[in-house]
Amino acid sequence: MNKKKWYDYLWIFSTTYLILGFFNILFAWLGMICFITPLMIALIKGNKAYCNRYCGRGQLFSLLGGHFGLSRKKDMPGWMRSTGFRYGFLIFFLTMFGIMLWNTYLVFAGTQELKQVVTLLWTFKLPWHWAYHGTLFSPGVAQFAFGFYSIMLTSTLLGLITMVLFKPRSWCVYCPMGTMTQTICKIKFRTKEDSKQCL
Predict the structure, then answer these.
(1) Is residue 41 part of a domain?
(2) Residues 121-149: what's their mean pLDDT?
(3) Domain coverage including residue 177
(4) Taking CA 39 as the corner, what is the angle to CA 14 and CA 85, rounded to the nearest 5 degrees?
(5) Which tens digits make up the pLDDT trace of 98-127?
(6) What's the structural domain count of the chain?
(7) CA dist., res. 3 & res. 101, Å (int)
(8) What's residue 199's pLDDT?
(9) What is d(CA 86, CA 60) in angstroms, rounded to the nearest whole number?
(10) How far apart are CA 194 and CA 73, in angstroms?
(11) Would you list the DSSP string of the chain?
(12) What is the pLDDT of residues 51-71, one digit of tens each?
């Protein structure tokens, strides 16, 4: 039996992050660690070590779907594994991220009021006023937190749905971050032999 490493418990961070954001939305800023770290690893090391080893969300899906048996363990349909779908979803994701940044800018600029809502699945606006207790910072700081928490909660929900319907870590197949890090890696290592590190 392999001895567990410290990074095998990063699923605790992912779970704690979602819980803390429920009570105080400013904790959503911690999610930037999960946003910046994989990109930095891909840029510096040229591999997908974050996805394969450090992703707490992937670990959580493995735990729930594998260990606790909450997954049907079925193969995903081919179209969900296709390059077109993965990059299409990445473009959609980045568009939603850009809209979130634009709304944050508008609040910082004072042309739009802070919206204390979490948007689930980019559609359903859930009141989340209890999670904002005021701050010494600009309301734009909170607006970013509401937007980023919406993205993290939505992607977690999508991951849970695909975990149940298909194999535990099916989310990893079309995860926008995974697609971005793989693209960075392929650009960094252009030869076929070197590109094996991108898997």
Answers:
(1) yes
(2) 93
(3) 6-198
(4) 85
(5) 999 999 999 999 999 999 999 999 999 999
(6) 1
(7) 42
(8) 62
(9) 21
(10) 32
(11) -PPPPGGGGTHHHHHHHHHHHHH-GGGGGGGHHHHHHHHHHHHHH-S-HIIIII-HHHHHHHIIIIIS--S--PPPPHHHHSHHHHHHHHHHHHHHHHHHHHHHHHHHHTSS----EEEETTTEEEE-GGG----SS-HHHHHHHHHHHHHHHHHHHHHHHHHHHS-TTTHHHH-HHHHHHHHHHHHH--STTGGGGG-
(12) 999 999 999 999 999 999 999
Q: How confident is the model at residue 4 (pLDDT cuts 50, 70, 90)?
A: confident
The pLDDT value recorded for residue 139 is 95
Q: Is residue 95 part of a domain?
A: yes
Q: How far is CA 149 from CA 74, 89, 110, 143, 154, in A?
A: 29, 19, 22, 10, 8
**How far apart (Å, rounded) are the C-alpha atoms in residues 43 and 114?**
35
